[in-house]
Write a structure and sequence with these properties.
Helix content is 18%, strand content 44%. The radius of gyration is 20 Å and the shape is globular. The strands form two sheets. The protein has a five-stranded antiparallel beta sheet with strand order 2-1-10-7-6, with no helix packed on it. Strands 3-9-8-4-5 form a five-stranded antiparallel beta sheet. With 170 residues, the chain is an alpha+beta fold. Strand 6 and strand 7 form a beta hairpin. The protein has one domain.
Length: 170
């Protein structure tokens, strides 16, 4: 009889494992480089949700954390993103490229309202070779949700860079 109970427990665990919902955060962001009101470059890039971002998202589900992710930062760092990242490599803080809160909304990717969207337009008063972007829960420091690097977008005084982050819960 003990063997039958042991086999039943093992089968139950396997069924639960196969039925468990696998929830993940993933997505992409879009860069639109504008000069004189015209789009001169557009890129869509996959993101990396970092460990600290996953932990913060879990805290948002039960109210342990109350700061939500609305701030977009850009930088000039070129080191590839890693799961353990907590900051950009070289965040821009001047010349129109400083971190700021974007416009937040939910959009539909697969299921109604399954994707968080943050949109921010940077208007430059200086020149930069922008090579990274990230999403944060605070105007300074704070928890980083996601980060990615990319080939340089060379902006000059008068240019704009519209950054749209989409983080899907699937």
């Amino acid at each position: 009889m003990e063997e039958a109970v042991g086999l039943s427990d093992q089968c139950t665990k396997e069924v639960r494992k196969n039925m468990a919902e696998q929830v993940k955060l993933s997505g992409e962001f879009e860069l639109r480089h504008l000069r004189d009101g015209q789009v001169i470059d557009r890129r869509v890039i996959k993101n990396l949700v970092v460990n600290a971002g996953k932990a913060a998202a879990a805290g948002l589900l039960n109210g342990v954390i109350t700061n939500f992710f609305e701030h977009i930062a850009i930088g000039t760092g070129t080191v590839a993103p890693a799961a353990g990242d907590t900051a950009l490599g070289a965040e821009i803080t001047t010349g129109g490229g400083a971190r700021a809160p974007g416009t937040t909304s939910r959009v539909t990717t697969t299921v109604t309202n399954d994707t968080a969207q943050i949109v921010l337009t940077f208007n430059f008063t200086a020149s930069f070779a922008v090579t990274e972007s990230g999403v944060f829960d605070s105007i300074s420091a704070g928890a980083m949700l996601c980060r990615q690097t990319f080939a340089a977008v060379n902006v000059v005084n008068g240019d704009s860079l519209q950054v749209t982050w989409k983080i899907q819960v699937s």
